[in-house]
Each structure stands twice: as structure tokens, then as C-alpha cells.
Amino acid sequence: MAGLDVDGVLDLVRDFDGLYFETGQGSEVTNGSAEGVDMVTLEARTYGLARYLRRETGGVNGVRPPVRPWMIVNDVAGFIGPEVFKDAEQLERACLEDSVMGKLHGISMGLDICATFHMGIAPSMLRRLTERIVDRAAPAYVMSVAGNADPMLGYLTTSFREHTRLRRQVGRRMTSSMEQRLTALGVLGRDGEPKPGAETVARLYATYARKSGDQRTSSLLEEAGRRRLHELRERGFDLGVVDASESDARVEAIYTHARRALYATVDEGIIRDASPRSMRVRTTATSRDDYLAHPPAGERLRDADARAVATLYRTREPQVQLVVSDGLNADAINEQLRALLPPLRRLLSDNGCHVGETDVVVENGRVRAGYEIGGLVGAAIVVHMVGERPGTGLNMASAYLTYGRDESGQSRWSRDLDHSLTTAICGIHPRGKPPQAAAEEIARTVARMMEQRRSGVALKASTPRS
């Protein structure tokens, strides 16, 4: 809905049977669009929009249907990071403020009480915080994942196994519709709560496999579910069926790993091995804590370093400039760069690309620092390898590919370049997208970008044949 006014949003959602909003204090601040307005006021405005859309949707020619579309709002407080919430007390206050505003607006709103790893809120602290907020705020629901740590987005939140304990602790029960659904699935115990353990998961697996058209018998499907569950647990996944103490230990280990990764540095020996020639530069971030708390500080090179980059190529500007940044996890660069960068450079050269002879290595760098470097060296394309947000127990890197010229061939490089103009290749790790496979995908994507003279959402999967 970015870039739409209220009427535009209303036109977009009018024909939906249900409306889901994800919100939370701080998004305007971190996106640089707060314009001096405080976060609470901006969040209240968001709820006002949700209420207005709820009221105005569902009708035809001004006539409302007998049943209006349902609406649910999910307040994801704590997802952004230390640039918005600096400690647990601020996070708790935001959750309570948002809950009060949601109730005053008359909207059904729940909470995802979460914390990014770079906020520094330990799992045990977040569990205690969740208990207090659930008791005091009485949200409509509490979002959860399997195992407390979201492996896709890299943050801590509630595990669904905690719901039974939280309900008992605050004297509440699940909704009637959810109770009826779980009863029909046969996974509720005599106490009215879901049965713990692998058998419940296996039964759910069998139910949904059958809904997908699997013709095997229930016993065979449940056995397949148990095998699948065992395979996933052997790979380290916590699917909510392990002992609570075992799960807590696993999450604590992920948290410790993430905190170490956040403060790691790129190894000079790794750079020497992976890059034939490099230049080390720094952003305006004065320290690692400054970098984590103030994202814009990692988006701009220091003036002296920017001048040095601008003098890299005095004769021929490169078609492709390679950039490496520590990002939020320098250990990802230390682990993946040797296997990623040399084959990538070779593949690009084999495809006929003129690759800049010097790789730029950025300390405390974010994606936008690559845009600035692209403009300084006059490159057509920047391939920027960045250590990604930790939180899975794996040190994964990503590559951000950007074509920096407009349709007329003029440079559009700017630190303010819209991220929609960038193509991301993520999850680079032997247990994700292996570095060699990533290098091949990056090279293919660069070739398409050169051919189409575009990147990001405008880049087509392949150029149509004439």
C-alpha cells in the first residue's frame, strides 16, 4: 500500500472478504517518513485508517452487505530493532500503548511480542515480558512460531507451545471457534488444551495431507508425518514437540550465536584469499553500537573514504563493481566469501563483463552504501555482498544486485535509490543456497540486467524472443 492515499487504499481493499493489517510503532521512524511526528501519534493514525477501511468496505453503490468483511490487526512490536526500542521497558510500554489504542478504536488486535537479536533482549527476559504484557494488555490473540525464533526473519517471539501456560496463568481460554476446530481435528486433551508431542503433529500432518489430495490411509499418513518430523528435528528444527528445557537451551544458543555475529568483524585474511585487490572503507558509523542503533550511519561513506573510492578508476569505468559489507553478520562474509567471490568474478568475466579490478570492502556497511559506491565509480551494476541478519544459527550472506542507470543511460545512483530497483539473492550458505550455485545465479542475473538495462521489480525473468 506504499504510496497510496486513503482513497487509493480503500479502492484496493474494497473487494476483499477479509482484511489483515500488520503494524507496530516505529515503522515510519526507521523508514525516514515520520517527519517529526511521535511514534504513538503515527500508530494511532494507523488504527484510525484500519477502522475507517473496516467501516467503508464491503458495500456496492453505498449499500452494505448483511455481513461486513472481517478485519484483524496484528501489532508487531519490537520487530524493527534498537533504532526504535532500546530496552525491554520501552518495548513493554509500546505494547501496552498500542493495546489501549486498539481497544479505543474498537478493532480486533493482537500482539506479536518480539525482539530482534540486535535489540539485546535475551530469550528469558522476553518470556517474562510476554507474561506481563499478556496479563496487563489482554490482547485478542498472541502471534507465535514454532520454537520461539523465526528462522525466516531472524527475531525472537512467542512459541505456540507457550499458549497453554499463558492461558492458564492469566485465567483465559481459547476462542470457541478455535476450540471447535481443534476438537474436530482430534488434538485436544481432556483439559481442553492441545495435546503435546509428536503424535499431535503427525495427526495434523495427516489431516492437511489428506486435504491436499493425498490418497493414503490415515495410519500411513501419520507414519509419514512422524518420519518427516524426525528428519526435520535431525536437521536442527524445533517444531514445538521437544521438552521445554531443551527448546529454551536451543533458543539461548541461537541468541548467543546471533549476538556474537552482530559484533564480528571481517577477517583481513579472508579478503586477501577471496579478492585479488581490495580497498577497505568505513561508513559514518562511529562504532558498532552506533551502526546498530542508527541505520543511516551505515548507509554513507566517510568523506575521505568516498573521495578515495571516487579515484579508483581514472580511465575506464567498470560495468560491474563488486562490494562486500559486514552488514549485520561479518561471520557470514568470513564463512562464505572464499567460495563465492572468486567464481563469481570468473563467471562475470567469462560472460564478457568488465569487472572493476578493485573490490570495495565496507566496514559497518548497509545496502545503501553500495548505491553510493556505484555512483562514485560510475558502474552500470553493483553486486553487493552483505552479511545478513543473524537468528537461525547459520551465518548466511546475501547479494544485492542493482542496475544504476535510467532508460536514457544516465546515472541514477543515490543513497536514496528505491530498494525496489534492487534484486536480492539470499540465503547464501552450504545449507541454504550454496555459494557456487549463488555465484552462477548472480552471473545469470547480471547478464539479464545488462541485456534489459533494469533490475529489481522491473527485471523480467527472461527477455522475450522476437
Task: Please give a handful of descriptors for the protein shown.
single chain; 466 residues; alpha/beta; Rossmann fold; 2 domains; six-stranded mixed sheet; three-stranded parallel sheet; 12 strands; globular
Describe this structure in words.
- With 466 residues, the chain is of the alpha/beta class.
- It folds into two domains: 1-161, no CATH class; 265-458, 3-Layer(aba) Sandwich (Rossmann fold).
- The chain is 44% helix and 12% strand.
- The strands form three sheets. The protein has a six-stranded mixed sheet, sandwiched between helices.
- The radius of gyration is 25 Å and the shape is globular.
- The two termini are 35 Å apart.
- The model has no long low-confidence stretch (mean pLDDT 89).
Count of separate structural domains: 2
Which regions contain 5 or more consecutive residues with pLDDT less than 50? none
Mind summarizing the main beta sheet? 6 strands, mixed
**Helical segment count:** 16
What is the assigned CATH homologous superfamily of the largest domain?
Ethanolamine ammonia-lyase light chain (EutC)
N-to-C span: 35 Å
Radius of gyration: 25 Å
Mean pLDDT: 89
CATH class of the largest domain: Alpha Beta
Tally of DSSP β-strands: 12
Secondary-structure class: alpha/beta
Which CATH architecture of the largest domain is right?
3-Layer(aba) Sandwich
Give the helices and strands as they follow along the chain: HEHHEHEEHEEHHHHHHEHHEHEHEEEH
